[in-house]
Design goal:
- The chain has about 350 residues and is of the alpha/beta class.
- The protein folds into two domains: about 1-115, NAD(P)-binding Rossmann-like Domain (Rossmann fold), CATH 3.40.50; about 130-290 and about 320-345, Dihydrodipicolinate Reductase, domain 2, CATH 3.30.360.
- It is about 35% helix and about 25% strand.
- It has helices spanning about 10-20, 35-45, 55-60, 75-85, 100-110, 130-140, 175-190, 285-290, 300-310, 320-340, 345-350; strands at about 1-5, 25-30, 50, 65-70, 90-95, 120, 145-155, 195-205, 215-225, 230-235, 245-255, 255-260, 265-270, 275, 345.
- The strands form two sheets. Strands 14-13-12-11-7-10-9-8-15 form a nine-stranded mixed β-sheet.
- About 40% of the residues are buried.
């Protein structure tokens, strides 16, 4: 299948994945500057005739196109994704999908109007092998029905927001819009893709952090479907010991708990005993039998799964329809932080 990649900074991860995947060919790239088009074109051997300054030019002139990746700054996602869907192509859209709930629902309606088209979201952690292992054994009921969860993540991340390419560091909710949406989606993944019924969120910037407008810390109390309660904390402005952005997550069920630090393999605690359930133990011996596409990780996994979803006419693992639920959580956290009030998710974000 032929892939057009729009945005060549983070989009290079998709170009790399496509280069190493027999099912995908690079149909073209879209980049704003001639330098980016030249450099990325050379790196991935993209013909000059397939290097475009705009999405409109690519759609008009790109031949044999099947799917488009939108890997641009957030505010460009909606207008570009509309063009891709209305043109009848499959869509891979980076997170967060759009900026408002109305835009998100509109994209789903446009997708559903194109019979047989697929759209997925670049939720990287859905392809992380250890998190996939955790989700599998959670679905198998290894700790019974989940009841409570704690998610925490903290580290120090700084960059110069005046640099043109550092647009993320100029977002008023950079932590949530860039990192938090991954984490909220990870929580949903590990809880069987439950929806959020109610939440209360807060954001702040600690006094020691030099970018005052960033909202570099977010915390929240989430009531998930099935009366599962989640305590969420994430900060990119915490000095001292770092807990990487994948986060430390512990889920408590009726039979025991499951724990994973921000890296490494997960563990379960059953009957007072700690057991590993990662790749370096008995649980990993039959990984080919329990997890699909085990040779793919993160973006390469998303890209290969998307190919399989198109060929088999099934939903991709990061399906746009399901990701509406994760996107609603992101918008709910920001709205709650703004108003200081809890959010009834079904009332504020009715599903189409």
């Amino acid at each position: 299948m032929n892939l057009l990649v729009v945005g060549t900074k983070f989009g290079s991860t998709y170009l790399e994945a496509a280069t190493n995947n027999d099912h995908w060919d690079i149909a073209g790239i879209v980049a704003r500057t001639p330098v980016s088009r030249r450099d990325v074109g050379r790196k991935f051997n993209v013909d000059k005739q397939c290097q475009f300054p705009s999405l409109d030019a690519a759609i008009e002139n790109c031949r044999d196109l099947d799917a488009v990746v939108i890997a641009t700054p957030n505010h460009l996602h909606y207008p570009m994704a509309k063009k891709v869907l209305d043109a009848g192509y499959h869509l891979i859209l980076e997170k967060p999908i759009v900026e408002t709930w109305h835009q998100a629902v509109d994209l789903v309606n446009r997708l559903d109007a194109q019979e047989g088209r697929k759209a997925c979201v670049g939720q990287t952690l859905r392809g992380e092998i250890m998190i996939r292992m955790m989700a599998h054994y959670m679905n198998e009921g290894i700790i019974g029905k989940p009841e409570q969860a704690i998610f925490s993540c903290h580290w120090w991340w700084m960059d110069d927001p005046s640099k043109e390419r550092n647009w993320r560091f100029r977002l008023p909710n950079m932590l949530l819009d860039d990192i938090g949406i991954h984490q909220l989606d990870e929580i949903r993944m590990l809880l069987g893709n439950r929806t959020c019924k109610r939440l209360f969120g807060m954001t702040c910037t600690p006094p020691s952090y030099p970018i005052e407008t960033l909202n570099a810390t977010a915390s929240g109390l989430l009531q998930m479907e099935g009366e599962v309660h989640v305590n969420y904390f994430s900060s990119m402005a915490a000095r001292g010991r770092s807990e990487g952005w994948y986060g430390r997550i512990e889920i408590f069920g009726e039979k025991g708990s499951m724990l994973r630090e921000s890296s490494g393999q997960p563990y379960v605690y059953l009957d007072g005993k700690k057991e590993p359930i990662g790749l370096d133990d008995e649980y990993g011996e039959n990984i080919d039998e329990v997890l699909p596409l085990v040779n793919f990780d993160k973006i390469p996994y998303i890209l290969e799964d998307f190919y399989q979803a198109i060929k088999k006419n099934r939903a991709p693992v990061t399906d746009l329809h399901d990701n509406l639920n994760s996107h609603a959580m992101l918008l709910g956290m920001k709205e709650s932080a703004r108003t200081g009030k809890p959010i009834d998710m079904q009332e504020s974000f009715p599903m189409p």
